[in-house]
Every structure is written in structure tokens, then in C-alpha cells.
Amino acid sequence: MRMFLSLIKLKRFLLMNELPEFRALGISDELIPALLAKNFQTPSTIQTLAIPLLLSGEKDVIGQALTGTGKTAAFGLPVIQTIQPGKVPQALILAPTRELSIQIADELKSLSGNKPLRIVPLYGGQLITIQMDELKKGVDIAVGTPGRIMDLHRRGRLQLDKLQFAILDEADEMLDMGFIDDIREILSLTNPDKRMLMFSATMPQEIMDIAAEFMRPEYEIAQAGNQSATNTDLTEQYYHEVKREHKLDALMRLIDANTELYAMVFCRTRADVDEVTEKLNAKGYRVEALHGEISQAQRLRVINGFKKRKFPLLIATDVAARGIDVNDLTHVINYSLPQNSDIYIHRIGRTGRAGRHGVAVSFVTPGERRKLKFIEKDIKSEIPQRKLPEISDIIEAKKQLFSENIALLLETGDASEYLNFAEELCTLGSHPAEALAAVLKMHFKNELLPESYQEFGTRQKADESNMKKLLLFAGRANGLTVPDLLREIGDRTGIRSTQLGKIICRADKTFINAEPNDAEKILKAFRDDKQWHFKYDELREKREADKKRKTPDTKPPKKKKVKTHKPLREEFFKWIAESE
User: Fold this and answer.
1) Whole-number Cα distances in Å, 106 to 73, 100, 119, 150, 568
2) The CA-based dihedral angle spanning residues 311, 313, 315, 320, taken in that order and rounded to the nearest 10 degrees
3) What is the DSSP secondary structure assignment for residue 286, as one 8-state letter?
4) Residue 452: pLDDT band with limits 50, 70, 90
5) Can you list the pairs that 390-393 forms with residues at least 24 positions away whose Cβ atoms lie under 8 Å?
6) Distance of alpha carbon 569 from its chain centroid, rounded?
7) Per-residue model confidence (pLDDT) at position 10
8) Predicted local confidence at residue 165, as pLDDT
9) Is the pLDDT of residue 337 over 50?
């Protein structure tokens, strides 16, 4: 028993000496284990500035900080430490998007550790009855979008007059999205003695107006470093000048040259996002789209899949990408140059995080040079121009990655069970290198040959005239995406995405083109699987065959137009004669 008590004392002693910098800000022993579990080490700038102010309760705070600077913990830790479990909300956090609301709620739950607080995300896109049932059970911290918060309050299900904290996250973005009236109405319903915090990457006049109207006098502005500059030590910035019609080719060249790319690609419009995603999927690249027209269930699936690296590229608009917190992006690619430097800083702030090197690449058309100069002036940093990777660079990168993977297998000995088979293969040619070359040819096909690339670095359009047409009775309505399909085919058959032809994923059907041998492999691999029902698309093959048979000679000749009217002068004199 004494030994057990001694161990408890030792554990408490060790905890008391953990994270001294967080303790110095006023964080209690109760929250230290949760911070240790999340691998917190030292507080960020915005945490250092905001946490003591919120814990003391003396001043309200405007926090100016970029994405990825630890904002959630900056307001979350004081909130969690101050409030106690109850029935009515003691903290309200407003966010511009569903994704950010869910992410904040999840982060607060992980920061609260063993403290039994009920933290509920409230947002549009989920049945309101589900959220009303959650509120019946009691809630300590409500996190939500302005529209849904207003809806629940008007229905009498969400009480706002007992708050200890009211927090606006991404306040400038909420104003841009037209939430200003909802925000004013929500804040007017809250009690005046609450503590208030606004986070904003920029400081427009509307932010200052809200502060003057709803914050206590002498509020504090906490700025996390120079907001007009980027972390050039961790984020490498450069641009490629490309014509608008060559952007997709340039993007594919970047993807091919960076074999371990894990990136967000920003487009200006939803239409651009859909077009880029569709064309890249058709080329065999594993990418997903994110914009405002995508359903909530699909958005959550895409975001979770991207965080788990199920696909390496996310094509998104700025608004849809708000709140996606990923710390290990290798690249941010500005497919469309942003309208201003604030958006540029928001975008590239997603890479170069957590001490990792990141790259920010921008595609700039010849007509956008002036806009680029304005961005450079605002961020006080020159963005150099670079040439796109050459075809030789792409091929060399693929060879290098393959060689590194082979070296790793040799080092770990994980391929030893294939040693006997390898020795057999080496006897097939006059020299072991010939057998190895044949294996490489089977694996890569023409992928490492310069002639398989066009001048601008894109793959040549595959000759699909002799490909077999397959039909899969599943589509987007079933939650299927092209990356999912390519992974499933690859896992079951070994067929790489580059070996397949065009793939079109519709609502309830998916069309695939494949070489005859590959088509047979796919049908055989999925033959007994009721969930994946493949068959030959005979109707599509018949239409293709009919198109081939139709030649210009077989088309009916165009009928010549016969002029039926007579010259106006002749008609006029005839009318005169008849009148007489």
C-alpha cells in the first residue's frame, strides 16, 4: 500500500514538472495530461498572448492569427478550465463552416481530457431533430454556424443568456459569407458580463465595429506575429507562368515530378474544382473535390479521407477549405491566383507547419503579373519564377522513388521469401539484367519512356479504340469515387491506374475502359462480389463500332438549297401589271 501511494506521489511530482510554460500561463494540473497526450510542448504565440487574458477575465480579446497557429487551444483551454458541467451552455463558439464547427468540437473534447463536459457541434446539413435531442441532454459548450444557432434559439431549444464565454472563430470569413446580421443578433441575445474573444486573420472595419458594440471597453488586440509576412524559413514560395489553357498540364507535371506529393490545390470557383477533379481522375490521378455544392456526408468523407492520406490531392475552393487542419502538407498549389494577399497568406499558411518544410506554388497567367506584384508588396517578400519540371525530371523522380523503395526492402529483408523465385528468373535471360529489365517493363510499361509524354509533360492520349468497355452498377449515389475504384481494382488485380483508359463515375453507374486482358482480370477478380457488379458494356461497344463504320462517304450528301424567290424587281413589275 505504501508503495502504491509512493507511486501516486511520484506521478504527481512528474506531472508538476511537465509543460512548465503552459503552467506559467495559468493552465491547471487537471489539463496537463490531455496536453501531454496531444504532444503539446511549448505554447504558440497566440496561446501565450490569449490564455492569460481569458483566464484572468479582466479583458476581452481580438486575436489576429493565421490558420494553424494553435487558435483552438488558445481559447479552448481557458474555456475548459473555467466552466463546470451543467445543463445550459456556458460557452458559445461561432464558426463559418460545418467542417470547422465539427473540428473545433472534436479538438475541445480531446483538450478536456477527463473533465466531463458536454461539447456539441450545431450546424446545417444535419437533421435539426438530432441536435435538438442532444440539447435536451444538456450542453456545456455549443459550437456552431450562425444560421443553425439562430434557428435553434428561435425554436426555444438553445439558451444564450447564461454564457461565460462568447467566441467568434474566423470572424472575417463569417463577415465575407454574409453572417454579419446573424452575428449581431446572436450577440445581442447574450449576457453582457460574458468574456468575449474574436479570432480573425485580418482586421476589417466590420470587426472593429462588432468589438466596439459588444466587447467590454479596453479590449486587448493580441497579434501572433507579423500578419503580412509568411514563414519563409519553412515555406518555399515560387510561381510558374502558364497560359490558362495549359494549367491542367502544368499541374499534372508537378504531380508527376513530386512522387510523395500531399497537397491542397486551390481553385477560384466550384466549376473549376469540378473540372480539374474530373479531368485528373480521368487521367488516373487520385484526387477529390471540395466545394459548397457537395453534400455534408460527402464533405465529411472527403475531409476524413484526405487527413488519413487515402488520396494525395484535395481540390478545393477557399470557403470549403476553411477549418481543415492538416499539419503535414508538402505543397499548397494556387491553381487560380487569389484575389488578394490575405487569401494568399491563408492558403500558403497550410504548409510549412509544425517545423516541417513546405512549398507554395502559384500558377500565374501572363495577364496576372501585376496582381502577383501586389501580393509580393503586401507580404513583403519576393516570389521567384521557376520553370516547370522537365520530362527528364519526372522520369528521374519516378526512378528515384522506386530505387528507394527497393533499397528499403533490401535493408529490412522483407523480400527474402522471394529470393528463390528471383534466382529462377535470373536464369531466363542471357544476363540477370535482362530478366530485371523485363520485370521493370511489366511494372512500368511505358511510364519511364520520354516518348510516353507530350511536349508539355502530359501523357499522350491513350488509344482507347481497342479497349473493352466495362460497366459497374455503382456510382456517386452509393458513395463511390474514382480514387476508391482505382484502389479497389489495384488491390485485387495489380492493375495500375495508368493502365486504364477513361473512367466516368455517374450517379448510379460507372463506365471504365480497359485493355482486353486487363478487362478480363477485373471481371474475374470481382466475379463473386455482389457489391461490385461488373459486366461488359455491350451497348456502349456497339455504339463505338457503329461510329467506326460511319465514314464520310456513307453520309448522305447535303441537299443544295434551291432559291424559290424571284428578284424583287421582277415581282414588282408583275404586281403593277396585275393591278392594271
Assistant:
1) 12, 10, 8, 22, 82
2) 70
3) -
4) low
5) 390/457, 391/450, 391/453, 391/457, 392/450, 393/257
6) 71
7) 46
8) 94
9) yes
Statement: the pTM of the whole predicted model exceeds 0.85: no
CA–CA distances in Å: residue 380 to residues 231, 372, 386, 521: 11, 12, 19, 56
pLDDT band at 78 (very low <50, low <70, confident <90, very high): very high
Residue written as cell 454579419? 180
Name the H helices within 68-97.
Answer: 71-82
C-alpha cell at 375: 501580393
* pLDDT of 462 higher than 90: no
> Which single residue is written with the C-alpha cell 460507372?
510
Distance CA 332, CA 313 (A): 10
CB 68 within 8 A of CB 103: no
User: 152 vs 124, 144, 213, 254, 473, CA distance in Å?
Assistant: 11, 11, 24, 47, 41
The enclosing H or E element of 491 equals helix 482-493
Q: What percent of the chain has pLDDT over 70?
A: 85
Q: What distance in Å separates the CA atoms of residue 306 and residue 162, rounded to the nearest whole number?
A: 38
- From the number of C-beta atoms within 10 Å of its C-beta (0-12, 13-18, 19+), residue 467 rates as buried
Q: Which three cell numbers stand for residue 389?
A: 519540371
Dist CA 308 CA 323 (whole Å): 16
Instruction: Give the span between the Cα atoms of 270 and 290, in whole angstroms.
Output: 8
Map grid coordinates 487560380 to a residue.
336
Give the C-alpha separation, 559 to 540, whole Å: 31
List Cα–Cα distances, 92 to 141, 160, 188, 421, in angstroms.
6, 8, 13, 64
The DSSP call for residue 169 is S
Q: How far apart are CA 521 and CA 492, in angstroms?
A: 9
Residues with Cβ within 8 Å of residue 526, at least 6 apart in sequence: 492, 532, 533, 534
Q: Which of 263, 248, 268, 317 is CA-nearest to residue 289?
A: 317
Alpha-carbon distance of 169 to 46, in angstroms, equals 13
Cα distances (Å, whole numbers) of residue 228 to 65, 203, 224, 341: 11, 12, 11, 8
- Tens of pLDDT, residue by residue over 143-198, are 999 999 999 999 999 999 999 999 999 888 888 778 888 999 999 999 988 999 99
Residues 289-299 pLDDT 10s? 988 777 777 87
